[in-house]
Amino acid sequence: MRITREFYFISSAARLLGMHPQTLRKYERLGLVQPTRTVGSMRVYSGEELERLRLIKHLVDELGINLAGVQRLLSVADSVERMRKLSGGAGLRSDARRRIEREVDRLCDIIGLGREYHEG
Prior knowledge:
Blueprint: E1 7-9, H1 10-17, H2 21-29, E2 36-37, E3 43-46, H3 47-62, H4 67-87, H5 94-111, H6 115-118
Antiparallel strand pairs: 1-3, 2-3
Helix pairs in contact: 4-5
């Protein structure tokens, strides 16, 4: 079994997302995404980062949320993801774990995260 991980330079990522490369640079400056850098300092985006950018685009374009709001929502989403990982820990009873997972699912629904984003 071979595991492949795809990476995209900024021009390819922008084209796939229907965004301008300058927008991706702005999102990086704001801390919304953190692409890795090549030795020559070129930005490289992973598939996970493309999904995060799709979410940002959805929040901005379709829901009309400004970038400050997007920053807050992504911060909440990151916290939710950490909670989800903690709920899978061995120290919790199964009923407590299920309650935490239900609450995490509710939070994800409230902030508009699809299952594909928060079940990764």
